[in-house]
Amino acid sequence: MEPPVTALPQSPLGPTLETARLILRPPMAEDFGSWAAFMADDCTRFIGGPQHPAVAWRGMATMTGAWVMEGFSMFSVIEKASGRWIGRLGPWRPHGWPGTEVGWGVIPEAQGKGYALEGATAAIDWAFETLGWSEVIHTIDVENRASIVLAMRLGSQRLRSAMLPPPLEWPVEVYGQSRAHWQARRR
Hints:
Number of strands: 8
Strand content: 15-25%
Distance between the termini: 29 Å
Helix content: 25-40%
Oligomer: single chain
Shape: globular
Order of helices and strands: EEHHEEEHEHEEH
């Protein structure tokens, strides 16, 4: 028997997606404490490094604002069994970005449990089906072996090297795949 799901408030910003173990929904104010703790952790070394809570707030506000400006952005990842915030993942395309990305980041305690794979799969399905994207990419630090393995498990291949736009300006490897490739693998 599955544990009961805690009722979560619906966001006016966008949809809520559910997987077997996760709820994906736009970020909400009550996520900030967990978001800031995640962004202060060394596990963020491949996505810009640990941040002061004031900087994490700006990052969360940016992703939340993208829901209003573009109709999509990263989702907060909620573990159904516990109701706790365990990360953020989903579609992402800031100005100057090297493509239409589905990215991910989960707290250390949630890593290695398949949550990023499960959530990214749902987010990629949503990006292709709802947003009409023709390609999805993942921008990954060359030393981030876990994310490279995840991208490959999702069926993505290394496409090219790129430089993230200002103010980030660091090199990444771009992994990705077309909608046709994704759909063929999902059949």
